[in-house]
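pinned: reference chain
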Amino acid sequence: MKIEDSLLDNPAFPVLVRDIAELHNVGIKIIIVPGTRKSIDRQLAAYGLKSEFKDGIRLTSEDALPLVEQASLGAAQRILSHLTANGINGIQGNWVQARSTGVVNGVDYMRTGKIERIEKSIIEKLLQEGFIPILPPIGWNKLGHAYNISSTELATEFSHYFSVGKLFFIGEEDGLNSALDINQAAEILKKHKKLPFAQREYLENAIRACRYGVKRVHWLSGIAASILQEVFSSRGSGTMVYANEYWNLRPAAINDIPDMLRIMQSYVERKLLVSRSQEDIEAKLSDYVVYAVDSAIHACGALHAYENKCFEVAAIAVGANYRDAGIGEAVVNFLIEKAKKLKAKKLFLLTTQASDWFYTLGFKNGTINDLPKSKRETYNHSRNSKIMVIEV
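pinned: its structure tokens
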């Protein structure tokens, strides 16, 4: 949950925290990111400082940074105090690694940063021990230098690290009062170029979260809405953006092959994939799936069948503009689910440079003995691909 600090002084805020406590008490694991814009504005004003903004992003100066830290940590502490009043163990900490945004299009973002990494293992342990982690939107680099980061992006980024059931953006106002799939949300962004920054930011991050695997993203009022209703129903108030993990995956068709080859080409050039011809793909076309948006192909993958119910995940490739959107994961997960439906006894893949990525999807190191006999006989020893397997 991202909770805007504008709610902290609202008489309804204790009701929101009580609902969060009830969710926690029934076993739902919760992570909270406080929004801090109002707190920072107030802190800077008290010292006679003002911030400049670029496209809705605060340009954080060296002079402003200590005050930004104080305001952000203060907002987190206030939420922590309310949780304590409800008998809940909250805990805040510096579990976000960040880097400088730097100079973009001539604009120096100074001490405004971008999220580099979240300490997943620490937060997982805290969740298992019954804590609600609270993460103020401050990140630190490896030298201990702090950066002001976006609370909306931070809340969304958890969807990349954890299996998030629902993501909430909670403020004083409802969203657009509608349920949107990510196609519809993208269409709103495309048609309405002059949306207020907050609306655009929430919709963009809702789409990104859905592509990371979140089923539903809720943007709603913490004053008027019931969080309990939002969690336990498929539709509540405010705006809901939703997606099926496989929303735009479909079987490949003959006409898709040129685009598939185009997407694969950069992987072939980097020796991540073996070269395939149009005839190679056409011969096994029924094995392939594509990720398509408005008839444009942005990713592909294949599931090849072997003897004894063995299947190979192969030809995973994602277009350059979509590689950070979680689409590769969706393709692989789809193929794993397809193998399960086909009663697979073993699922394997070969890779030269992507083993770390496949580890995150549940694959483990295998040996040549894990390959079916026909695959062992054609294994390219000079390429020396790593063999990986997953239980199905």
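why pinned: The chain has two domains: 2-242, 249-390. The chain has 13 helices and 23 strands.
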